[in-house]
Model the fold of this input.
Amino acid sequence: MTPLEFTLITFGISLAAGVLGSLLGLGGGIIVVPALTLLLGIDIRFAIGASIISIIATSCGAAAAYVRGQMANLRVAMLLEMATAAGAVSGAYVAGRINSVFLYIIFGLVLAYSALAMFRKRHEHIGDPAPPDPLATRLRLHSVFYDRAARKEIVYQVTHTRLALGVMYVAGVLSGLLGIGSGILKVPAMDIAMHLPIKVSTATSTFMIGVTGAASAGVYFARGEIDPFIAGPVAAGVVLGATAGSHLLGRLQNRHIRIVFVVILLWTSLQMLRKGWSGL
Amino acid sequence: MSDAPQPPPAQDAANDKFRQMELWISTVLRIGVGVSLFLVLGGTILSFIHHPDYVTSRTELSQLVGPEADFPHSLPAVAKGMWNLQGRAFVAAGLLALIATPVMRVLVSIISFVYQRDRAYVAITTIVLALLLFSFLVGKTQ
Done:
């Protein structure tokens, strides 16, 4: 393969990863890492370095439109970021002292449960009245957004704020320890616990993952694991894909977003359980 | 972004200020992405101009993306490479601009919450920034 061919193929794959990531609130690592390692034969260190760049690129590319269009709930994002960041710091602190085999199994089971819970919500209408949560009211988390597919404004209330903060802390610990799961746990926490509309959950997750990625990106860069020849086309492709995706989200049906997310949850859950099982 | 939905009518000045913050954050993200994209694309084009054989050679790739690949990965090295008009140094600078964008976004939100006199969220966003900087320092010493 010539360097030009490599650049163009990587750019094309990243374009797709950016669209999918921005719609589902994920960083795109689920596409970028296997594509680089299995398809293009890149060393896993460089693939992970590029996927960290992909996370930030997804977030920055899509979030401008999500914030402007009020799809992402800024207050929810900032509150939960605090919990995830705290979790990530503690995760890094205990790394190496915990058996990762059991972590993979726990993570896999949590994802499987999330998939089931999110699937069961598929017939619920968005904007279903949730029991008012005094903490959410005090922090002014309730909000409104315009759903282009439904052609109406959706007023929504946020609930179980404390539970979500706890879940996000654990999500942060896990991602600090395993280097995965920045978006895949954020969306279920907002969807299942806080009762946010699915589009608001994925848009808010997209907005948040940039900070999660930036926290570790500096280190990867300094360690020389972000190769510009690989991460460059990834950044350009993902940014453009995510920008395109961010204009698409409003028009999609809630059910479709939910089903695709559940499939990816199940897939990742199986991967984690397999990793844990083979290490036992 | 003409297809962005219109915000609900502002009820009071507080809503206006919050909307203002959303627009600021959106602008910061757009500038960061724009600068990054410009440097990455420009650097890539520069690399291909300096090395026309990248278009045809099938032996070069392993030196660029293999485990022994050589590229700048510190601020002085990136600056020096840019001074020498090295394409990969411009790409690396674009990646650094991308990494800095979320940090700038958190900074802008702290400033806007101060401006909105929203103490709870000033505290929340400041903690986020502190944890972000802390995780960076912790990672660096590891």
Q: What stands out?
A: Chain B touches chain A through 74 residues (CB under 8 Å).
